[in-house]
Amino acid sequence: MTGRFVLKIGDHLESAETKKYYVERNFFEVAPRYDFITRALSFGRDAAWKRTLISLLPSYESPVCVDLACGTGDIAFLLAGKYPHGCIAGVDITEPMLNIARDRNNHPNVSFANQDMASLDIVSESVDIVTGGYALRNAPDLGTAIDEISRVLKPCGVGAFLDFSKPGGKIPQKIEYWGLRTWTGLWGTLLHRNHEVYSYIAESLQRFPDRRQLRDIFRNKGFSVVDSRLFFGGVTELLMVQKLRHASENSAPAEHDISFQQRSVATTC
């Protein structure tokens, strides 16, 4: 993938297949500047939000953790700091992002693999904690991604997700949309000569469930909502959920027999 990024958002967000292609191509373009832009767009608060996510996770001795859409590895490395005896796996579909994460990795219990969050090569009910920073909004199909999270989590396993958050009500949504579109579009123009590179955030959020709807989706798929923290007046949210003990009985997902170990990301460290 070379050359200037020219894909149009509106042509690619209406189906799971085209959205996946767009997200992968977009983050291929963004990868070299990803760490900078996450700080810039959040006015330097992104790192603090991720530390808050980690601080709210349970105090396990040696959990198996999976970080979805891991990007350059920020959350995976924070997980390694909290759980030095745990096993941390970061997954992403964009190889340049993973290459940066691998180059930064100095934790023996952290590994990375190119995998789709909607089709993880992980043994069912083998994971204690699933995290995601700006992950769920980028899922080609949100329902499928949450089903997969449920499949890999053990009963009572925990999920923690940080992302841009959509308020209820048309007027707050329009205010947030145009504010995000203007701010992110400015950075896209400055860094890539294309406002759509980062205004994708506003467009994808417009198509994403609002806060109440997202909670309902998780509850309907066998989770309880255990905590929520809003940042920047609700522009971003940290949402924590827990898989109910009987969730697997309700959904009965198909078994996957390919483990992380077979794909260079071990579930035992």
Describe the strand arrangement of the main beta sheet, using strand numbers.
3-2-1-4-5-7-6
Q: Would you list the SSEs in sequence order as H and E?
A: HHHEHEHEEHEHHHEEH
CATH architecture: 3-Layer(aba) Sandwich
Helix percentage range:
40-55%
> Care to count the β-strands?
7
What is the number of helices?
10
The largest sheet, given as strand count, sense and whether it forms a barrel, is:
7 strands, mixed
Shape annotation:
globular
Range of strand content? 15-25%
CATH superfamily: Vaccinia Virus protein VP39
Structural overview:
With 269 residues, this protein is of the alpha/beta class. It has ten helices and seven strands. A seven-stranded mixed sheet has the order 3-2-1-4-5-7-6, with helices on both faces. Strand 4, helix 6 and strand 5 form a beta-alpha-beta unit. About 7% of the residues have low confidence.
What key attributes describe this structure?
Rossmann fold, 10 helices, alpha/beta, 269 residues
Quick rundown:
This protein has 269 residues and is an alpha/beta fold. Helices cover 42% and strands 19% of the residues.
Record the SSE blueprint.
Layout lengths: L15 H15 L3 H8 L4 H10 L8 E5 L5 H9 L4 E6 L2 H10 L5 E5 L12 E7 L8 H11 E12 L5 H23 L3 H11 L4 H10 L2 E9 L4 E8 L3 H5 L18
Parallel strand pairs: 1-2, 1-4, 2-3, 4-5
Antiparallel strand pairs: 5-7, 6-7
